[in-house]
Amino acid sequence: MNRREKLLLSILGKEPDLTKTRMLDTTVKIILGDLGKQYSKFWELEGPGVMCFQPHQERSMFYMTLKEVHSAEENCQRENDGQLAETFRRILEAGQKIDPSEKAGYIINDEKGIRYFEICYNTASESSLEDVVQ
To answer: What is the DSSP string of 23-38?
Structure first.
């Protein structure tokens, strides 16, 4: 069991209930909401893009411009990795629709693969954490 799994287990317990799950979800949204301030600064300095988290990598967190996402898509196409190219295409498409005053886009790239999601800062609904690409 890795550190992240141990933390989740300590919060949710062996038998998670709806209240604990909602509390964890809210905590994650608050943390990512705070990261939104950093996201907006990157957006202003470097242009449109997404935050990328790569646990267990030397460069574990960085901002990836949409131009860099497009470049990653093209590299995957050249290397005949159509599935990964499609993932980057979908991330690029979603990232182009982001209004940084309303939401931010995040990529998690770990042993489970690449996942993209958006956090909407102006809503508190259950659906404000949306998986867009899996």
So the answer is: HHHHHHHHHHHHHHHH
Under DSSP, the state recorded for 59 is S
Burial of 131 (0-12, 13-18, 19+ CB in 10 A): exposed
More confident residue, 99 or 17: 99
pTM of the model: 0.72
Enumerate the domain spans of the chain.
3-133
Cα 51 to Cα 42: distance, rounded to the nearest angstrom: 9
Degrees, nearest 5: CA angle 74-94-110: 70
DSSP H helices in 47-133: 66-78, 82-95
